[in-house]
Amino acid sequence: MTQTITPSVTPTAMRHTLAGFATGLSVVAAEIDGQIVGMPASSLASVSLDPPLVSLAFAHTSTTWPILRRAPHWGISVLGEAQAQVLQDLRRPAAERFGGVEMNIDEGAAFVRGALATITVTPRTVVEAGDHTLVLLEVKDLLRDEAQHPLVYFDSTTHTLSR
Fold first, then answer.
1. Measuring CA to CA, which residue among 34, 33, 122, 129 is closest to residue 76?
2. Among 12-26, 35-49, 54-68, where is mean pLDDT lowest?
3. Which of 4, 69, 83, 141 has its CA 20 to 30 A from that of 54?
């Protein structure tokens, strides 16, 4: 009798299982050659407090990552629950992505205006990790609006927290 073994850890199984892990939603962006370049990101993670480091992961298929990596400073905007429309706007093609999205620029780092939190970072280490590139980022400045509540990504859709 011939037996076919099917691996249980497939890309589909990974995506489905990790959709059960709630994350915040952020936008990473920078001004490059007079244009804002960036994308939504659900992979933001705290890595270290001393030195202050966070990380982001970019798919190898990303057309934004090769351009963004040229910028010396990036802005990370953590989206609040009132910014669900901003997230929808940022799902447009890269060339149109930031049209109509109110942004602030600070020394090349670009931030969504009114974000729950902003983090200014500089790229530090790039690690190839499977079908993604993992980037460790040194935190240079950060600010949080404690009056806001986060927009949360769970089960492949956005949610707000119940109070």
1. 122
2. 12-26
3. 83
Contact present, 152 and 80 (Cβ < 8 Å): no
pTM: 0.90
pLDDT in tens, 68-103: 999 999 999 999 999 999 988 988 888 889 999 999
Q: Which two tokens stand for residue 40?
A: 């939504």
Sign of CA dihedral 46, 47, 48, 53: negative
Question: How many Cβ atoms from other residues are within 10 Å of residue 144's Cβ?
Answer: 12
Positive or negative, the CA dihedral 20, 21, 24, 25 is negative
